[in-house]
Structure formats: C-alpha cells, structure tokens
From TrEMBL:
It comes from the Eukaryota. It is found in: Membrane. One of its GO terms (biological process) is protein retention in ER lumen. This is Protein RER1. Belongs to the RER1 family. Keywords: Membrane, Transmembrane, Transmembrane helix. One of its GO terms (cellular component) is endoplasmic reticulum. The keyword Disulfide bond does not apply.
Length: 193
C-alpha cells in the first residue's frame, strides 16, 4: 500500500513547482509593466496587427474575429462606465454632482485601464491561437457579421454617450485641471502683495 499515489506525487511536485515559478515570474513582469502605459498599448497594437494579418492571409476565422470584436466592445463599455451607476445610485438618493454646488466625486471606472489592457491582450492571444485550429474556421458570410457588429457598436456607443451626457461625466482626463487665480480687493494681482 505504500506505493499507491507515491509516483504521481513525485511527478506532480516538479510540475507544480514549475507552474508556481512561472506564475511568480509572469506576475513580476506584469507588475513591472504597469507604469508603462504607452508601451503596453503599443505591444497590444502590434499583437492585434499580427492577428489581423493572420486572418487576412488565411482568409478565414471570421466567426473568431466577430467574437473577439463583441468581447472587446463589452470591455470598452466597462472601461467607459462609472463604477457606481448613477441611475441606480439616484434611486438611493445619492448621485453624481450636476451643479457647481454639489460635492465633487471623481470618475472611477468599472473596469480599470490595466485590467482593460490585460483582458484585450489576452483576448488577442487566445484568438490568435484559435486560428491554428481548423475546427474554429466556421464558414460564414463575413460582410453580414461586419455589418451587424457595426450596428451593434453604433447603438451601444450611442447609448453610452447619452448616459455620459445625462449624468455629466467624462471618462477621460486630459491633463491637470487649472483654476483661475482669485483676486483680492486692493491687490495688483501679483501673488506677493
């Protein structure tokens, strides 16, 4: 009875150690890439270009591309949406500020930029790997899928933009906000009067 499970444990231990070491190294490089936003997105753009070229040269896998497009659209909506939906919050009595006298509440995304980038990058990697398996090359008439995706994108973005207008939030910050200097009576406007 001593030999039962003994061989399986000796084989599984190095595999578990390797997986643990790989996971730590992968997390280390992910953490190191966090402040390099532009470089991360350029890498993802390069990966997306490779995927598009692969689909173009193979002339197939349109259903995979359609699924990838729907997934990216879903991620984009999460990236553009506030963490706390003002429609639901308005029912509770609290809402985003709509007047200058209201309390300032910063815009916090439902899906942070890093997670947005990571999910899109993983999606392109998975879609690229799927192009090497013919089982995913379902024959479809791609112009219909493209038209349907464009209509879906326009309708979804229209709804999202109307939501932004209604609740007066902008999901992007463009630099640091500057304020006009307050002038005191009797001062010439220089800061050291």
């Amino acid at each position: 009875m001593d030999g039962i499970g003994g061989d399986g444990a000796t084989v599984a231990a190095p595999l578990a150690n390797w997986r643990n070491d790989f996971s730590k190294q992968f997390q280390y490089y992910l953490d190191r890439s966090t402040p390099h936003t532009v470089h991360r997105w350029l890498g993802t753009l390069a990966l997306a270009s490779i995927y598009v070229l692969r689909v173009y040269y193979v002339q197939g896998f349109y259903i995979v591309s359609y699924g990838l497009g729907i997934y990216i659209l879903n991620l984009l909506i999460g990236f553009l949406s506030p963490k706390i939906d003002p429609e639901i919050e308005a029912l509770d009595g609290a809402s985003l500020p709509t007047k200058d006298s209201d309390e300032f509440k910063p815009f916090i995304r439902r899906l942070p930029e890093f997670k947005f980038w990571y999910a899109i990058t993983k999606a392109f990697v998975v879609a690229f790997v799927m192009t090497f398996f013919s089982v995913f090359d379902v024959p479809v008439f791609w112009p219909i899928l493209l038209c349907y995706w464009i209509v879906l994108f326009v309708l979804t973005m229209k709804r999202q933009i109307l939501h932004m207008i209604k609740y007066k939030y902008i999901p992007f910050s463009i630099g640091k906000q500057t304020y006009a200097r307050k002038k005191f009576p009797g001062s010439s406007g220089s800061p050291r009067d």
